[in-house]
Amino acid sequence: MQNKVVIIDNGIDDGLLCKDLETAIFINNSGKVRKDRVKRKDKAFQHGTICALILEKHCPNCILSSIRILDEEGKGAVDKIEPALEWCYQNNVKIVNLSLGTTHFGEYSKLNKLINKYVYRGLIIVAAVSNTGFFTVVDSLN
């Protein structure tokens, strides 16, 4: 069985993968889903690509898709997470890689409700722990 896995991050350089992405989209500043036509630059922040390479190595049968909500420096707005998760839900995705978080404690309540909403709907959201040791909201939700 092939699992659909969506990486919500800064996009994926599909030229570095062994197989094609099923879907590559981004969330624009209005919260709308659009086809992602941006090609990653060799020296750009490649976090989403690294996540994809790890998944491809350890889960070679998975079907990968990308939702870009972060810019080339890894910055983004928390408001883009909900349309990304809604797209996943509407497109029968079960596993979401969300290797990002926020240190803005004012966003905790909103993110907590949002993550719980989609987990309750059946999404499995895999979130990372901060590399810096700082408390980040998404990676510490229960």
Kindly describe this structure:
- By secondary structure, the protein is α/β, with parallel strands linked by helices.
- It has a domain at 22-29 and 37-102.
- Helix content is 25%, strand content 20%.
- The protein has three helices and six strands; from the N terminus they run βββαβαβαβ.
- It has helices at 47-58, 81-90, 108-120, and strands spanning 4-9, 23-27, 33-35, 63-68, 95-98, 124-127.
- A six-stranded mixed sheet has the order 3-2-4-1-5-6, sandwiched between helices.
- The two termini are 28 Å apart.
Task: Break the fold down into its secondary structure elements and pairings.
Elements: E1 4-9, E2 23-27, E3 33-35, H1 47-58, E4 63-68, H2 81-90, E5 95-98, H3 108-120, E6 124-127
Parallel strand pairs: 1-4, 1-5, 2-4, 5-6
Antiparallel strand pairs: 2-3
Radius of gyration: 14 Å
Report, as a whole number of angstroms, the end-to-end distance.
Answer: 28 Å
Helix content: 10-25%
Morphology call: globular
- β-strand number: 6
Describe the structure using short key phrases:
142 residues; alpha/beta; six-stranded mixed sheet
Briefly, what is this?
With 142 residues, the protein is of the alpha/beta class.
